[in-house]
Write a structure and sequence with these properties.
The protein has 680 residues and is an alpha/beta fold. It is built from 30 helices and 14 strands. The protein is globular.
Length: 680
């Protein structure tokens, strides 16, 4: 075993197969059942409260006795070589930093399932712990298989077909019911010129699926077998898209805009970047801000669907700030006010009833940001301002105007939005800030023809000088459109003027649509469900909407990321989201919206967001009560116009559904609100 790196503990925790601690000098300490379980939970879950751990390890035991058992177990561990393997400094327990853990490391043998977690132990006497162990075993196995899938794709794209086939065969041994792995073995055998082996692989798939599941192969597998049998499948894999085409190494054609941002930075002004979809707003903003190495950079974003409910964007943004500064000291009054949008901070004050309440809420936000800035130079940057809700934009203007124009402040801010996408009320809030010199607006124009040529050279497109005029004409200098055409040419291996035109026939959505068409059904369904959710989705939430298991969604998500549809838990680009939404069949879209409404309602999401899902799902009667709740929520934050709008929308839905009593009651609520509020 190699010596422990500097700063780490000399013990390595092995949880796969036999549970043991291995010292750097070769000594081995076998772990008993409960000690192994405790260390596994701390390693894989990142720690937990003492009380929960005691209940997990000793269920059915009185609380005091269980906690005492935990104390004895910790004391026994502390006696190991005098090493502090567990951080027990507060009410929670965590694995000490520097302890290496085999279950957290990348699989050593790609495509081969890891040895089961805690394989030698059973936990039938602790049902919750047994469920946790089983879930972790499945997660580790899925992670190993997903790594294998990535390896197959990398080998195949690079032309290393033999290595790709060997990995695919190992994956199939690990999961013989996966049609995706069966198809990979079929396809790779054919690509290597062995059509009989490819067809034998198909026959094996049919036998396994019939014997184990009593089903026939999916239509996709049948089509692949037919194409192999008829010799219609290309014998070579698609060409790989170079990394430079996914993200060009250098920013092209934005020197003037960079200079404007530099001047605004020096003066301490707020910065706003606007441009058409695909113009490179995010790339310019991020590259510029990352050049400011003296400042910590925090990146936020507005998301589709945020506008449905007040303070949706700020709730997410301020949570992210607290995640970045977990030990930020906030006065009690600030925590109480922020609990209006972040319930985990404690009990919120009563609903707002006067403008003074809103002012105190905004001042709490100012105080939090002021304390962040006191910790050191920091940049708060928000992309896609056009998706943000108006309440968050109003509050943000109030908060950041307290810092703009001060060249000495530690805080810098930048926002980006799509040209023409901001509402008139929002523009009315921003324009006075620009006129007063507190904010600089930088508008991105399309690239000119020389810049398009430079971009093509940057991504090493074969025949770039000849293709540049045609791509400039087709894309009008939009960088995203240029790069989508480049990706399409690399995917087909055809670098001709005609192919450039074909790649962008109609618009870039056709290119993205081609990528969607190559997805497996599971990945496509996941993309559609995420698009319907629009804002603040996660793989787990998408799985709930689709009523599928976590392993299924994990596989689908890997495919979406590999296809450049997703980047983490967001769409790779707003254009991708819009294309996915546009291509969902009407019936499927309604069903997905209804499932999303039920799922979001169960999770306590903002009422306005649930209402929008029911409306998009074609069920206005279900939407109306949620609009009433949304009105009440808006009224509690003094958003009188929004509240009245929600009430009147609900009244119209009730009236259309021939429910006159409900319609009249809600209309009266809107009138009372307007009479008593004094309006905004």
């Amino acid at each position: 075993m190699p010596p422990a790196p500097s700063g780490s503990l000399p013990w390595r925790l092995e949880l796969l197969g036999s549970a043991q601690l291995v010292h750097a000098d070769g000594r081995t300490l076998r772990l008993d059942r409960r000690t192994a379980a405790l260390l596994a939970v701390l390693a894989l879950d990142g720690g937990d409260r003492r009380a929960r751990l005691a209940a997990l390890l000793w269920p059915g035991t009185p609380d005091a006795a269980a906690r005492n058992n935990l104390v004895h177990l910790l004391r026994k561990l502390r006696a190991v070589d005098g090493a502090e393997l567990i951080d027990a400094s507060d009410a929670s327990l965590r694995l000490a930093p520097g302890v290496s853990v085999d279950a957290l490391e990348a699989p050593q043998h790609i495509g081969t399932p890891p040895r089961p977690l805690l394989a030698e132990f059973e936990y039938d006497d602790a049902p919750d712990l047994a469920d946790w162990v089983l879930s972790q075993r499945e997660t580790l196995s899925a992670r190993s298989l997903a790594a294998g899938q990535k390896t197959v794709a990398v080998h195949e794209a690079a032309g290393r077909l033999r290595e790709a086939l060997e990995t695919a065969e190992r994956l199939l041994l690990a999961d013989p019911l996966s049609e995706e792995f069966h198809r990979a073995v079929m396809r790779l055998n054919y690509a290597l010129g062995d059509r009989p082996a490819a067809l034998r692989a198909y026959q094996r798939a049919k036998v396994v699926l019939r014997q184990e599941l009593g089903v026939e192969p999916l239509p996709e597998t049948v089509r692949l077998a037919r194409a192999i049998d008829q010799g219609e499948l290309p014998g070579v894999p698609d060409a790989a898209i170079p990394l430079s085409a996914l993200r060009p190494p250098n920013l092209i054609g934005r020197a003037e805009e960079w200079g404007l941002l530099e001047a605004a930075w020096t003066a301490g002004r707020g910065m706003i970047v606007s441009g058409e979809a695909g113009s490179g707003k995010s790339r310019l903003a991020v590259d510029f801000l990352r050049s400011k190495t003296s400042h910590q950079l925090l990146l936020f974003e507005g998301r589709p669907g945020d506008a449905a409910a007040p303070y949706t964007t700020h709730a997410r943004t301020y949570r992210q700030v607290l995640d970045a500064y977990p030990d930020l000291d906030l006065p009690d009054w600030v925590r109480r006010e922020l609990a209006r949008i972040i319930p985990t901070l404690g009990e919120a004050p009563p609903p707002m009833t006067a403008e003074a309440d809103k002012l105190r809420f905004y001042e709490a936000k100012v105080e939090m940001i002021r304390r962040v800035a006191l910790r050191g130079p920091v940049i708060l940057a928000s992309d896609d301002l056009h998706y943000m809700d108006e309440a968050s934009i109003e509050a943000g203007g109030y908060v950041f105007s307290r810092f703009w124009g001060d060249a000495a402040t530690n805080l810098r801010t930048l926002f980006a939005y799509r040209s023409g996408a901001l509402s008139a009320p929002v523009m009315a809030r921003i324009q006075p800030l620009i006129d007063a010199g507190l904010v600089t607006l930088v508008t991105l124009a399309p690239l000119d023809e020389p810049a398009v040529g430079a971009l093509l050279a940057e991504v090493e497109l074969p025949g770039a000088p000849q293709l540049s005029p045609e791509l400039y004409r087709l894309t009008s200098g939009n960088p995203q459109f240029v790069l989508e055409a480049v990706k399409a040419m690399f995917e087909t291996g055809r670098f001709e003027r005609a192919q450039a035109g074909a790649a962008l026939s109609g618009d870039v959505s056709a290119v993205i649509g081609g990528r969607l068409a190559r997805l497996t059904p599971g990945a496509l369904h996941a993309a559609r469900a995420a698009a319907v959710l629009q804002s603040d989705f996660s793989p787990e939430l998408v799985a709930d909407v689709l009523h599928i298991g976590l392993l299924d969604i994990a596989t689908a998500w890997e495919e979406l990321e590999a296809a450049q549809i997703m980047h983490g838990e967001r769409f790779a680009h707003a254009l991708v989201l819009e294309t996915v939404l546009a291509q969902i069949p009407a019936t499927a879209r309604r069903l997905l919206h209804r499932s999303a409404a039920r799922t979001l309602a169960q999770q306590g999401t903002q009422p306005a967001r649930v209402a929008r899902q029911w409306l998009e799902g074609g069920d206005p009667v279900q939407a109306a009560p949620w609009l009433q709740r949304a009105a009440e929520a808006s009224a509690h934050t003094l958003r009188w116009s929004e509240a009245a709008g929600f009430y009147r929308e609900a009244a119209a839905l009730y009236a259309a559904a021939n429910m006159p009593e409900e319609a009249a009651a809600v209309e009266q609520a809107a009138e009372r609100l307007e009479e008593g509020s004094g309006r905004e």
